[in-house]
Amino acid sequence: MELNGAQIVVQSLIDEGVEYIFGYPGGAVLHLYDAIFQQEELKHILVRHEQGATHAADGYARATGKPGVVLVTSGPGATNAITGIATAYLDSIPLVVISGQVSLPVIGSDAFQEVDMVGITRPCVKHNFLVKDVTKLAETIKKAFYVATSGRPGPVVIDIPKDITAPHIKVPYSYPDSVSIRSYNPIVTGHKGQIKKAVELLLSAKKPIIYSGGGVVLGEASEQLIEFTRTLGYPITNTLMGLGSYPATDKQNVGMLGMHGTYEANMAMHESDVIIAIGARFDDRVTGKLDLFCPNAKIIHIDIDPASISKTVRVAIPIVGDVKPVLEQMLELIKASTIKIDADALAQWWKQISEWQAINCLEFDRSSPLIKPQYVIEQLHEVTQGNAYVTSDVGQHQMWAAQYYKFNKPRRWINSGGLGTMGFGLPAAIGVKLAFPDEDVACVTGEASIQMCIQELSTALQYKTPIKILNLNNRYMGMVRQWQEFSYESRYSHSYMDTIPEFVKLAEAYGHVGIRIDKPEEVRPTLEAAFAMKDRTVFIDIMTDRTENVYPMIEAGKGHHDMKLRVAIGTSTDRELA
Amino acid sequence: MMRHIISILMENESGALSRVAGLFSARGYNIESLTVAPTEDPSLSRMTLVTRGNDEIIEQITKQLNKLIDVVKLIDLADSFHIERELLMIKVKTTPEMRDEIRSMADIFRGKIIDVTPTTYIIEMTGPSEKLDAFIAAIDPESIIEAVRSGPTGISRGELGLHL
Ligand SMILES: Cc1cc2nc3c(=O)[nH]c(=O)nc-3n(C[C@H](O)[C@H](O)[C@H](O)COP(=O)(O)OP(=O)(O)OC[C@H]3O[C@@H](n4cnc5c(N)ncnc54)[C@H](O)[C@@H]3O)c2cc1C
Ligand SMILES: Cc1ncc(C[n+]2csc(CCOP(=O)(O)OP(=O)(O)O)c2C)c(N)n1
Ligand SMILES: [Mg+2]
Q: What is the pTM of this model?
């Protein structure tokens, strides 16, 4: 079969099994758009801003585990995609981003809409390619998918000069079934000796804790993690990125750890003698001050990326490998082991943990006349029976969604953890809804974040992706304001906007349903009504208590054992912000 | 901060060098010197990079380098017995009276005079970097017009080698 470059791109994506491509046209990709026009298999989703395309593809990838695919034009189209590429990079999300480039002969001449995409994206991609030969196009696309989805996943950029996709240059086409790259061989199974040592250490622990992260979600190892944890009977804590990989409502789960983690999770980390980190990367939001991190613990670390191991915290037993086979290998040894877990010590440890749990660190004022954001998330959980896909933006609302929506399944919690990108939530929700049209998809956002990609409301209408937007409207960049309250003597420098749009009208202008509520008793019925509107996107503008802060919190420079807790329930209601 | 000499076998592709250089600047690692050239297999090039750092930093540097898709293999030569050589070409002003002295100095250091004009010599010299340092130090600084050094390259001793 002879195809031109543009047809090769489209056909390769189809042969790769790609369902949706999120994009925005422009000069350098016109040949590609013409090829897209002339077929029906590959569905193109036209966003309203290239950042939206990357986040939508990213949301699709996080929810499905399949790579998200993006198409943007050269120059401004390419640079608009950068934030989304970096967002995917920091959370290890597989994306394949195809960018148009000026024609080969004019590259480097400051041609119209030329930017060095390969150069600009180098620090925020797993790998990138500039295609210089149309006969290498199909193979390059295959390589891009292979690199993006294998090992530690990540975004890959393919920059394609316009002349490579020219309609009149046809070459033989065949899409490779597989490719190998001699310089790239991700390690899968763990080292047997290391695993044996790890199991011995683990079984002889007196105050153990399992600390698991996004790697379990990425590695589809939730089932293995559950069996592993239940077999051991040890407490488990999840990172923000790991939520859902172990059921939140299970009694062995002590909640999220880190800056806004639970008191019990952080105290258990601090007091533990053995920690097994599974697909987690000791991020600074998790460790707090490194000198104070888990002073008595010996650490085992399973990670597919050797560079994640001993990067910030030195570990005793590193295991490089894919979580799923490694957990299987470990389970086998655990079951066969003659070492008996010290049951008395473990019971003592659980007793200690239950004392920490008794302080009820996530309790909040339930009698307030104002809408408490935490209450909204609890209600969201109930109305959706804990089964919704929840995307979020960045800020206080993100932390409340993480703390109060008890995720029991992996891939349901979709947020930007590493880069913390405001504007992520709405386009991500569109990507999720396309993948799972019959599931409930909620976007928990704030009045500042939502305005960063609000234009995608238009995309949601065009492609009939009925999502429910919960705008926790505190009239503040709440997360910024909270830090200013705690660390800058309440000098609220530019964390407030004088004008906030009327979101109800805005939603209606975009063709959706808009509802504004400001009383706690309206929350439940409004959510029920919104989710009952199966075919409409509903924007619920929820006026929340603007003084509310996210607790508990480890402030900068503090350790896990030194959390700031809510002072006393009830005091925040009548609290005036200074 | 220990000195390390890292030898890297990588794909001989246009972007590969900038990926390595970009990694060092993005992560704040220092590069003291860097040399690169294609190998006997033209699809591969070999880079030698001198850097400094404590054990943790060097461990991260080697892991991050290995993570680059273009990097096939690498070794830290400082971990084992190895030989290092650097090339120096130095151009010095000469007066008739000084010519003998410079020539014998070059001889002592096993350098070669490879270009002569009525007023200048160019001396070529290879050796471990310290030897080149010593030679430069031994020459009257006033007389040096310019000096160019390749940065060290290295190879491990014995049967082990860095190849596919
Ligand atoms: C406002 C805000 C507040 C935050 N507060 C917190 C907080 O309180 N607590 C918290 O936890 N986070 C918090 N975060 C998120 C934080 O910044 C990090 O994104 C997060 O902690 C990283 O999660 P992780 O360690 O699970 O790693 P991820 O970023 O999910 O990385 C996954 C790790 O697993 C490895 N991996 C991938 N695939 C596999 C596989 N198949 N097998 C084995 N290993 C694999 C990767 O190499 C990597 O090391 C916050 C973020 C924001 C924006
Ligand atoms: C693109 C971007 N710019 C700035 C920030 C810094 N930042 C983090 S949270 C936040 C405020 C978010 O406000 P809002 O969306 O209203 O959420 P809230 O904290 O009030 O729930 C800001 C500005 C960011 N994370 N992303
Ligand atoms: Mg807000």
A: 0.97
